[in-house]
Design a protein that fits this description.
The structure is a single chain. With 163 residues, the protein is of the alpha+beta class. It has a single domain (3-162), classed as 3-Layer(aba) Sandwich (Aminopeptidase), CATH 3.40.630.30. The protein has 4 helices and 7 strands; from the N terminus they run E-H-E-E-E-H-E-H-E-E-H. It has a 7-stranded mixed beta sheet, sandwiched between helices. Helix 2 links the parallel strand 4 and strand 5 (121-125). Helix 2 (98-116) crosses helix 4. The chain starts with a strand and ends with a helix.
């Protein structure tokens, strides 16, 4: 069973390796700085031994309504979103469902934000085709600007976390 908590203080993450240097660098050198500056929040997943096996990062942002498929004409020009900036699982822990658990946790956090202030989507810019395929499996839809830029509506998130 995973424990998922905010990354707010020094934890041993220097040996984290998901197989992608960009994602490793973020958790090892940038995540705490981002939290301290208020740019976003990173959540760590730890196993029963306390080892960090994965993480994800959330921030807020906006997307242009013109990039949204089937956008309603009455939508504002900029649509508020929660941005899933990163999601990674240690290479030696992949294919165990940890990524799914992290995504579901991120979706629940997104619903909390949506209920407090209102956002339309959970947005993600995938860096790798494998990641894109992961998100498609959970119903993410590409924006019109880039097939690697994807979203999941709040309504779809509610269905996902209830099922």
């Amino acid at each position: 069973m995973l424990s998922i908590e905010p990354f707010v203080s020094k934890r041993k993450v220097g040996d984290f390796d998901c197989g992608y240097p960009t994602l490793n660098n973020y958790i090892q050198t940038l995540a705490l700085k981002s939290t301290r500056k208020g740019y976003g929040r990173t959540y760590l997943a730890t196993d029963e031994t306390g080892r960090v096996v994965g993480y994800y990062a959330l921030a807020t942002g906006t997307v242009q309504v013109g990039d949204v498929p089937d956008a309603e004409s009455l939508m504002p020009t900029d649509v508020p979103v929660v941005r899933l900036g990163r999601l990674a699982v240690r290479a030696d822990c992949q294919r165990r469902g940890y990524g799914t658990q992290l995504l579901i946790h991120a979706c629940k956090q997104t619903l909390n934000v949506a209920d407090l202030v209102g956002v339309a989507f959970l947005e993600v810019h995938t860096l790798y085709e494998e990641a894109r395929n992961f998100y498609v499996k959970y119903g993410f839809i590409p924006f019109l600007d880039d097939r690697m830029h994807m979203f999941l509506s709040i309504e779809a998130i509610r269905r996902l976390v209830v099922d």
